[in-house]
Amino acid sequence: MARPRHAARAIPAVRPPIDAGRLWAAGVATAGVAALTAIVGFLVARAVFGVPVLAPKSDGVWGNANTPTYALLAACAGLVATGIMHLLLRYARAPLRSFGWVMFLGTAVGIVAPFASGATLAATIVTAVVNLATGIAVWMLVSAAASSALRLGLVRAHMADAPAEEAPVDASLGSFRP
Q: Which residue, of 13, 22, 79, 138, has the fewest CB within 10 Å?
């Protein structure tokens, strides 16, 4: 009797362990990077290119209250991306691929949205470029954090199962022993 074709692709009953602390620590760092990416992008636009983004020129290089608000929203986007990744790692069949699509589409929205704002073309382009840079930074950092959290989770799970004298030593972890 032939085996059904779908049986070979069944989802495994046991998921690889995730080091959630490592994932979320990197997520907090990603939030900081996202906020700083937005701030640096707008500072360069105002100071180097003289484009008044999110504020009139009279507000100076640092702009007005919109700049910190934008940076805070970028940081929140980094934390939301980390939460989405955590959920995908737990429940999705192909979490990294799914996360790639979520980030691609979210970044695309961030690039296109400024063009509907009615701002000047220069300010619109600068905002779109800052959103692109922020999206790429969040995408790459959270993806790398997820890979690291999965790898370290597997190492810790294996070390917990192995007898003490046979515990593996991973050169990439240095002297770290969980």
A: 13
Distance CA 105, CA 100 (A): 9
* Domain tally, the chain: 1
Domain holding 78, by residue range, is 18-159
Check if the beta carbon of residue 76 is closer than 8 Å to that of residue 164.
no
45-65: average pLDDT? 72
Structure tokens at 87: 């959920």
167 assigned to some structural domain: no
State how far the alpha carbon of 1 is from the alpha carbons of 4, 27, 75, 154, in Å.
9, 50, 56, 37
**Structural domain includes residue 30:** yes
The answer as to whether 174 is a domain residue is no
Position 111 in a domain? yes
pLDDT digits (tens, 9 = 90+) for 74-119: 999 999 999 999 999 999 989 999 999 999 999 999 999 989 888 8
Structure pTM? 0.76
The whole-angstrom separation of Cα 175 and Cα 173 is 6
